[in-house]
Amino acid sequence: MSKLQPARGTRDIYGEEARRMSKVVDTFRRVATSYGFEEIATPIFEFTEVFKRPLGEASDVVSKEMYTFEDRGGEEVTLRPEFTAGVCRAFISNGMQQNLPCRLMSNGPAFRYERPQKGRYRQFHQINAELLGPETPEADVDQIAMAWRLLKELGLGDKVILHLNTLGDAESRAAYRDALVAYFDGYKDKLSEDSVRRLETNPLRILDSKDDGDKEIVAGAPLLSEHLNEASRAFFEAVKAGLEAVGVPYEHDERLVRGLDYYTHTAFEFVTTELGAQGTVLAGGRYDGLIEKLGGPAVAGVGWAGGIERLAMLADIQTEANRPIFMLPMGEAATLKAFALAEGLRGAGYTVLADRSGNMKKRLNRANKAEARFAVILGDNELEAGNVVLKDLDSGDQSEVAFDSLVSAVQG
Ligand code: ATP
Ligand code: MG
After folding, report:
1. Burial bucket for residue 116 (CB in 10 Å: 0-12, 13-18, 19+)
2. Can you point out the beta strands (E) in 179-263?
3. Tens digits of residue pLDDT in 272-301
4. CATH number of the structural domain spanning residue 121
């Protein structure tokens, strides 16, 4: 039988990689908590409409990447390709507009049917933060500052650069859309099939095309900044002033449009040069119309998501596994006593394992191989005397320690 493999684009995550990914999530939780965020866990699948409506039919995610299927009851459901739409659906379902602003953090798997490569998978994991309520640019600054703090704490301050753009408000985008249609209409015979279709559905999407021929045409396209109205311009200036006050370095990237349809005003991506085409580690923006699009109240929002695999690959993380303490009891009575002593050590925060078989030399070898910090040796003689032999496996020193002094002895 050939070796049983996980489905294409999915992976088993364990050992060093699992520790690194946990560290990313732990750091995210701690940082987001310091900005007042609270946890929300939404379902991994939703009715397909929840994603289709806000992300837009013309987006790559909806048109090519979603895992959509009919369940046994005939419902159309989709595995979440991202978090924002589901979190906004939850905001509406639970009447959270009674309590604005809402600061909601999540993490977990997301699913997209993509061509797998390093840093790009069909099941991947995201950390996600949504700030719902505030319409003012200071909220955008807060959200980007939070992302920047996380990246710095992961040791990525020198490895990533913030690409920042504005997509303007609805009025500015409508004016820009007209300008783009006029421009791309002249290249209809040269554009890719996908982009000709986008010209009808969402011409802004053409700017995000990965097709080389399209890219050349896009290079000459009009810029959104030439079509921004006064309010949109002022909004963007305020975001930039805030970022300068916080001390977040950025580059204004006029060509940055995000892959999903729902963004307004601020759009941003933290990008590294170290992961090739998978260089975007964290991205987000403002999405003022999204909650209404889902049938909810007119509540604004700004948020971002980070790819945990990409962050874990890049981050400067020390992930030594906890060095355990090994209990090495000889005989039945000592084995029972070792249970109680191990509980005492675990209660004090230590990782404790027991090795109960074979001779002492073999067991000590296994303890050393497991990089144990101490071995706790006890047999009938020790039981009688009320102590253990504590062996420091780094120095080789060993000493007799009374049962009730064991915790303080390993604390050193
Ligand atoms: P890309 O341009 O790399 O396809 P994206 O714009 O589709 O990214 P977003 O929808 O903004 O990505 O998702 C936020 C983050 O999630 C990305 O910056 C990236 O770190 C991560 N991510 C997205 N898709 C994948 C994937 N298929 N595998 C691993 N990580 C991913
Ligand atoms: Mg993508």
Report:
1. middle
2. 250-252
3. 988 888 899 999 999 998 999 999 999 999
4. 3.30.930.10
Other Cβ atoms within 10 Å of 277 Cβ, number: 10
CATH number at residue 386: 3.40.50.800
Decide the pairing of beta strands 374-378 and 387-392: antiparallel
Q: How far is the CA of 245 from the centre of ligand 2 (A)?
A: 31
Q: Which of 314, 339, 368 is the last residue of a domain?
A: 314
If one residue of 262, 273, 278 were mutated to test the ligand 1 pocket, choosing by the most ligand atoms within 8 A of its CB, it would be: 278
pLDDT > 90: what percent of the chain?
84
Residues in contact with 326: Cβ distance below 8 Å, sequence separation at least 6, in sequence order: 352, 353, 354, 355, 363, 366, 367, 370, 372, 374, 375, 376
Ligand closest to 126 (CA) is 1
Residue 1 above 60 pLDDT? no
**Would you say residue 203 lies in a domain?**
no
Average pLDDT rounded to a whole number, residues 201-205: 85
What's the gap between Cα 282 and its chain centre? Answer: 8
**What's the whole-model pTM score?**
0.90
Domain that holds residue 254: 15-169+229-314
Q: From the CA of 163, which ligand is nearest?
A: 1
Average pLDDT, the chain: 94
265 in the same domain as 126: yes
291, 314, 337 - which closes a domain? 314
User: 286 alpha carbon to ligand 2 midpoint, in Å?
Assistant: 18
Quick one: 44 and 128 in the same domain?
Answer: yes
Do 273 and 389 lie in one domain? The reply is no
**pLDDT of 221-274, one tens digit each?**
999 999 999 999 999 999 999 999 999 999 999 888 876 667 899 999 999 988
Pocket, ligand 1, Cβ cutoff 6 A: 82, 112, 114, 119-121, 124, 126, 259, 278, 280-283, 305-307, 309-310
If you measure from the C-alpha of residue 43 to the centroid of ligand 1, how many angstroms do you get, rounded to a whole number? 20
Amino acid at 57: E
Q: Please tell me the predicted confidence (pLDDT) of residue 58.
A: 75
Instruction: Name the closest-CA residue to atom 28, ligand 1.
Output: 120
Please check whether residues 238 and 380 belong to one and the same domain.
no
pLDDT score at 151:
97
